[in-house]
Amino acid sequence: MQHKHEISNNFNLATDNCSIKNDTYQYYPVVIIGAGISGIAAACRLKQELGLDQFKVFEKEAGIGGTWLTHQYPGVACDIPASLYSFSFAQNPNWTTLKPSGREILNYLASVCRQFDIEKNIQLRTEIRTLEWIEESQEWEITTLQQHPVSSQSAKKQVIWARAVVSAAGKLNQPRLSTIGIPGIEHFKGDVIHTSQWNKNIDLSGKNVVVLGSGCSAAQVIPELVSPRHNVKSVTQLMRSSPWVFPNLLSPAALGLWETYMPWMLRHIPGLTRIVRTVILLVVELQYYRIKRSAFSPNSRLKDKLLQYMRRSVPETYYEILTPGYEVGCKRIVHDAGWFQSLQHPKVTLSISSVKRVDDHTIVINSTSNGPGSDPVEVCVPADAIILATGYNTSTLFHGIRIIGKYGKNLHHLWEERGGPHAYMGIAVDHFPNFFMLFGPNSSSGHSSAIVNIENSMNYCLKFIRGIVTGEISSWEVKIASCKQWTSKIQDASAKSIWVSGGCTNWYVDQAGWNSMIYP
């Protein structure tokens, strides 16, 4: 924790009194962008820590939840134990399982909003279009566009003024549409859908389904597709490379005991929720330590164990293509929630392939069915639906929002000039006073609960916001030197990390080698 003098060493502060706009403008001491996990955390902590009720949360979707609202694909679930993937200040003793479904997490977030009475502070269907810092008044001028709940043609423009802005806009909101540019895709007669834009009305019964991708969402959706609920004709999974797959934390028998007894114990044994949360945190961190220690080790026991698990779980024909050609941890690991078992299903086919072209009801691929080093063979795959489990565009933050700071500095232009998105402590950028980011650049761990990082960031932000809302301080701004030094430290450490030198491509690091996602 930084003390006050340490904070002031890295931030410039102004203490002039600022004026409040007249009644023709809406004014809030604090505005929060987004009502996902980060936005809900920010709102709750403002009320809990500062006793502040005069703030507004603007959310572009029609409901709260962020990623968990927009991701409705079959099988969507948390891949981190829920005791850790929940707020420390709002623990839930009623989780039905160790890693609950997306719907259960969404219900939890809604219950937290009710518990802290922040629903009235949230304005839905409202996009932030521009943010502009007004130096004279030491305030942010915010332009919003609120969609009509019924008519998509009608939208209301508003101008809001705020002393401080907390961005909780998130990173996983721009899907990577890998079919763009594939020859013939415009002639495809079936459905094409990204897992983050799932259509609940889609009927896959009796259809040949092709899934592109091998990450976490692919590993969750495929077991569901071959279940009796969907009754598909076939599932063909096309992947560019295989992931490292970790077995479940608990065996099926142990998971059954957990689901039977743990909810009762958490409700009736004082302090047990915090104990369980701490133990799980230690287990997850130990797992990450093992990953880092195994990197580049020629005799890694971790790699051997993961490969043994794979060979116990999948048909022998897939041994070669499911042996990753890069280090453990270079990409985000996949926690097996039934994917390996689903590969034994007669309806499922797995291939390392690149898509060559698309016809009306066919995908033509170059398949290396015998492993990454084998010669490609052209294969026609029947397809009535294409599911894109292809991840997100994470190289650009604040899509569609124009952010102008001091001296007319544009945030996107500033980042472009310096190499990529960055922020001091993942929170603040010079030239942008009173602008704080949650889950900002380099604030992800890549292996653990994002909520832990989000809470830590918000607790740090509260040190600055407190003085702003009480009027003691009109603005905080991180010093240029501090921001650049922090960024240089992050990028230097990243260049030596497993994500850059582990032999893979990932969504943590862009093509130029800039890491704007992970804290190294």
TrEMBL record:
Protein name, as recorded: L-ornithine N(5)-oxygenase
Coiled coil: none
SUPFAM superfamilies for the chain: FAD/NAD(P)-binding domain
Keyword Lipid metabolism: no
Keywords attached to this entry: FAD, Flavoprotein, Oxidoreductase
Gene3D superfamilies: FAD/NAD(P)-binding domain
MF-aspect GO terms: flavin adenine dinucleotide binding; N,N-dimethylaniline monooxygenase activity; NADP binding
One Pfam family hit: FMO-like
Record InterPro entries: FAD-bind_Monooxygenase_sf, FAD/NAD-bd_sf, Flavin_mOase-like
